[in-house]
Amino acid sequence: MDKNTIIGILIIAALLVGYGLLNRPSKEEIAERQRIQDSIAAAQLEEAARRAAMDTLQEQTEVIKEVPEQVSEEVTGEVDQDDLADQFGAFAEGAVGEKKFITLENDLMKLKVSTLGGRPYSVELKDYQTHDSLPLILFDGDSTVFGFTFFARNRSINTNELFFTPDREESEIMVTNGPEILSMTLPAGGNSYIKYTYTMNPSDYMVDFDIQFYEMQELLTDRINFLDLNWDVYMRPQEKGRVIESQNTTIFFKHYQDEVDRFNPRKKEITEQDISTRVEWIGYKHQFFSTVLLAEDHFSNAYISAEQFEEPNKYLKLFTSQIGVPYQPVPDYTVDMAYYFGPNHFQTLNRYEHELQRLVSLGGPFSRLFNRYFIIPVFNYLDDHIASYGLIILILTILIKLILFPLTFRSYKSMAKMRVLKPEIDAINEKIPKDKAMERQQATMALYKKAGVSPLGGCLPMVLQMPILFAMFRFFPSSIELRQEKFLWATDLSTYDSILDLPFNIPMYGDHVSLFTLLMTASTILTMKISNQASASSQQMPGMKGMMYIMPVMFMFILNNFSAALTYYYFLANIITFGQNQIAKRFVDEDALRARLEANTKKKSPPKKKSGFQKRLEDMAKQRGYQPPKKK
Length: 632
Description:
Helix content: 40-55%
Oligomer: single chain
Number of helices: 16
CATH topology of the largest domain: Beta-galactosidase, Chain A, domain 5
Strand order of the largest sheet: 7-9-10-11-20-17-16-13-14
């Protein structure tokens, strides 16, 4: 085993060890995980009670799986109060009312609240539009459910179907100089009520949302310590590429004082999870925007599910949650929560607590660190000084390739050594027939060892660059800064650039032709062909020639629907790599390299030095009287 091979193996081992250390949980994390595991047993009793309540509720109410038909705009006329009292009990007063809307608006969004259910009815983000230039609505009332379901004196109550009374008469509330507050109250007989309080601040995507239970201890049984909050949202498409948007639309949730988790967005079947432990927040994430419900402290538990729809359905997915909101049977109990309605912008999310920035998918541990502490700061700095995102991506690519140039040069030098040894490799192939493949391989490896060439020398530098390639693969499709930004023929760098729309759909490829993807593919094939031209490895393994063309074509099919910024970056990286190889060619004298390798092959192999361990074994044997046989 030669020196270069040993170094390569050591580097790979160091990477594996480093990866393991990087992902090893801290003592605090281990202790917290142990605490969570210990709490599961206690949570089972709570979970059993919740499940029993769910089963009873399902027997009395229909589970909504279609887009719910809205209650009539106004309930008027003769209403039998006895019937209402019999059906709703203490909540009979809220069963009759008029559906109205009150809008809270700051400079970033419009939040429309409905008196029916007292719930958020729709949210519009004012600084953004859909891909077809329509107002960007995160959700609307025809596709949402938000309300508590519980039993009050043996009656099934759903607050989503009852009318709340606002504390303000105006229908539009502008939030400019300071916070504005809107309270919606659901009477429950006598002095009892449930109150929703919304507090909006200027220039803020976060809306405080508090729920007050006043004098409710007589209506609700004292044997429960949480109430079920049902939150369902049909996710509307916002972007041009439905396939990629669907693959980036999913549910995120954060375990209490623990890690952020999510559903696999690529699963087409219904995905569900029953979380019996505490949860800090649940987020319904689009590709570039999110709606997040946060607890100031925690939610008791949650059951969440996601269902994907295919075209021609106008919605992407249905997200449902049944959230256990903590409750105590005391005269006045308030639960502090908050809503985030806004973009998946890393810097914006990073200003808030609860690790909301994890909504921006930046990849695994290494990719996330590289993106967070290098790519994002550099990208933001360039964004502050350069108007063209195409130019920003070009400069960013040059910086990355300059950092990787030592690895690129080492790879080129190793490939040059392989080219220099090509005549000797050809001689071995002529001398040893094909049917003795093992003998031919052994002779080749012996030549490499004698010349001091490692077959892994050209591959290892490329392997070390792969984590950065993966990091960029995650960065560009997640960057909202590129959304609807134009460059050359691409009208939106966050999605595919189409120069030709096809009248049919090609499986895996799509119904369009992306020019940046074609340029990326062509430049990849050209770079690989020139780099491997006349190399010993390509002559020895003809199958690799086919792989040289198959892999880029496969990536052409895969990336045709991806972000134009991503394929543009890969195209630039290929061109710059080609230029770096041409520069490296000027600094590598293959004639001098051949002379040095030939000198290495003529040298006699030095006697192998005994390792310290072997020497100690021999000394111990001599002490016991063992004498090694003398050489004849």
